[in-house]
Amino acid sequence: MDLGIKGRRAIVCASSKGLGRGVAEKLAEAGVDLTLNARTESTLKATADAIAGKYGVKVQIVAEDVTTEAGRQALLQAEPQPDILINNAGGPPPGVWSDWGEEEWLKAINNNMLTPILLMKAILPGMIERKWGRVVNITSGSVKSPIAQLGLSNAARSGLTGFVAGTSRQVARHGVIINNLLPGSHDTDRTKGFIERSAKEKGISIEEARKEAYADNPAGRYGTAEEFGAAAAFLCSQYSGFIVGQNLLLDGGAFNSTLG
Ligand code: NAP
């Protein structure tokens, strides 16, 4: 299917690996020129070279921390007029409610709520003026179904979700479409770390821990970055203009409900 976005330009935050890279690959496959971002220049450059080589699109990199004002300014300077914005950053650490003080809360709120909001604030006026824009925020299934040990994520991302719910409905009439994608468990470096920790805690092998984790999911596995990227690319397509302010859960059916 031609997504109708060939020649469009996208900023993909936190995209040298994992879900962000999955989205970058699928946008590139649709012919979108990319500005990729991550903190580590070497992996970012390798990803950019691989994507440019495979899909023949223009790819530039901004090796900065997107959760800082300086990092965001560098991104906006490199690509001041993106048609597509993919908001993403690393997730907060696990813990227990009693672990987190003001410093930890401010960091989580900055990284997973304010950073995407500030990027949208900077980019939406240009999209509105040009009467076309797509924003996809990578949040988490934890917004819908809390993961107790990820309380920082549950809360900060819920704040972002509330902002998107109202704002997406204010900008849709200008051809600017904002939605959230909620990953359940996907095979990336982040979940590899969780599985390794679980193996250590239970005194079992990593393979056994992985089998257990997969068995808990109705699909019998974790999602792939490719599947995630394809869903995001559709939400950035010419055909997503009537999908407004939605929260699409990609979790293999792990969230058990009949509706919603
Ligand atoms: P990942 O495989 O660890 O990849 C993270 C990517 O983000 C890397 O490219 C990393 O590169 C970059 N990054 C991290 N912090 C950054 C920052 N401050 N500024 C710029 N780039 C940054 O993680 P993932 O699994 O794809 O997860 C992506 C997001 O989805 C996270 O917020 C995670 O909590 C959320 N999520 C993931 C899952 C899952 O199952 N994978 C489920 C629910 C939610 P550098 O380290 O070089 O910066």
UniProtKB/TrEMBL annotation:
Organism the protein comes from: Phyllobacterium pellucidum
UniProt xrefs under SUPFAM superfamilies: NAD(P)-binding Rossmann-fold domains (SSF51735)
Domain of life: Bacteria
Membership in a protein family: Belongs to the short-chain dehydrogenases/reductases (SDR) family.
Protein name: SDR family oxidoreductase
A Pfam family hit: adh_short_C2
Annotated InterPro entries: NAD(P)-bd_dom_sf, SDR, SDR_fam
